[in-house]
Amino acid sequence: MNIEAIYHTPHGAYAYTNGPDTMRVRLRTSNRETLTCEVYWNDRCGSPECLDRSTPMTWLANDGTFTYWEAELYEPHRRLRYAFHIVSHDKHEQIWYTEDGFSTTPTTERWLSGLFNWPYLYETQRIDVPAWVRDAVFYEIFPERFANGNPHNNHPATQHWTGKPAWFSFWGGDLAGIEQHLAYLQELGINALWLTPIFQAPSNHKYDTADYTKIDPYFGTEEDFQHLLAACHAHNIRVVLDAVFNHSGTDFFAWRDVVEHGEASPYVDWFHIHGFPLDRQKPGYRTFDHHGNMPKLNTAHPALQRYLIDAAAKWTRMGVDGWRLDVASEVDLSLWRAFRRELRAINPQLYIVGEIEHEAARWTLGDLFDGVQHYPVYRAIHHFFTRTEEAPWEGLAHSQSWDAATFDRRLGRIRSWYPTPVFPALLTPLSTHDTPRFLTLCQDRRKQQLAATFLLTYTGLPMIYYGEEIGMEGGPDPDCRRSMIWDAQQQDQEMLAFYQHLIALRHHHAALRADGVWTCMAQEQSYVYSYVRGTLPIPLAQSPDASQCALIVLNNSENAQTVTLPLQIASYGAEPIWVDGTLLRDELHMQLYRVEHAQVTLQLGAYQGAILVPYITV
Q1: So what's the pLDDT on residue 392?
Q2: Catalytic amino acids?
Q3: Which structural domains are found in the chain, ordered by start?
Q4: pTM greater than the 0.85 cutoff
Q5: How far apart are CA 427 and CA 396, in angstroms?
């Protein structure tokens, strides 16, 4: 047995509180071995029999090198000690794994046993993602470019709605424009909005905040926002706002005071200033990126924290459903802890998601964020689905295009980073206001539809960037921020109908919103990828709950293919998901297939997907 691959630590994604009396533990083993893993545990202050309860561990993911297992432990006394029992497939090898290392026999000590320990399950340690997030389909709106609903509040430099955007151009989008199109969003199936910043700022993007307590006048008034919020809620649409706390703009009152009074300003410590005089061209102060007009805030400063939290509390009390936190990984963690504590006291179902471009498990352990923008999966999607010989934009060539096996291994690795309850809160896009639009990169509407099928059927929280559903294109910023196309003659109506249908399927099938994902097919040198979604019961074939599973098949190639899929998931033993004779329907194309010999054979066109569920006739 390859013990060098075995790993556990009693914190992070490997051990976390999952409920009042429950915790989950995770174990890593070698991917090259077939093993059986169990957790033995009891009350750490309990009976002399050191480990009197056991739970089989279930497969979570593999990344090509390691396999990850997980188990849920219930302990009403909320004090646990535990050990792992790992047995080889032929049962010739078995080991016990504790914090002391490896042994061939279990410990019999009651105290100072060397077992892994979780001293107490505090409710405050619980990972508590808002319940509504699991059922959400998000839509990102860049307000300045979505719709101009009130020309009377236009910026003086507002241009005609159509045209190519520039860094400093204005098109007149506002809050009234969003409200006027809520019926469109509801028909699309959207039930949550992320609005990029709407607070007073001089730019079109508003990430250079001047006043965190006021709506930008070119977007409307505070009353306009209250009206929009009420209208969204009347349409069963949640609203998440953008908080830019890493930096401000140079029109921010505190920065203006520092510019005017220098070291004598009471706000000088709200920023990271190295020396005076201040020069935006060669700033003697820290900034966002290297932009002199965005001075970095000293987010560890108590008075600044109080100002920012109070500003966010104002909008939260107004009824905002969540916050997207800009440049979240560069902000002092003490601010985020206080932010969560105080705003969740106002709204216990508030969704908090951080913009972090990399692995971000440390921010999702229950004390900071519910989720993050899932850029690692975004990158994996682009490597697999946007394969082109020549990228249309310099620096975006996908020379490392992936086959299905590579794609699956990366997805498994990413799943291993995060506690399972966090999966539904990981906000996953195909495009954003910071990236080229997906269709521009892949240059094939079929590829976008296939990637959207993955997005809406994979674990995580799907997000659609405004206009994606009607085939809008755009290169790197600012071209990705074109004005929304509202002329139906210029919209891709077939794409729109596809998105409507796909979103409706996600809403209808609980399996597509569950945590579980199991690979069915992902072969080297193949571009057919298939996975099962839902909550697989044991044994599979005999359980009526098997109807809660869905099988997704993606043909990411330019050739039509006949695909035969085994319905025995290796990580779940020999039982097939569905018994022979089960009739399956592809919910995308209404084609029927029958399970025979524990497998199903289907035909897929080039860049075509299928979502198979049991077909039940009445």
Answers
A1: 44
A2: 326, 355
A3: 3-125 (2.60.40.10), 131-246+299-508 (3.20.20.80), 248-297 (3.90.400.10), 511-614 (2.60.40.1180)
A4: yes
A5: 22
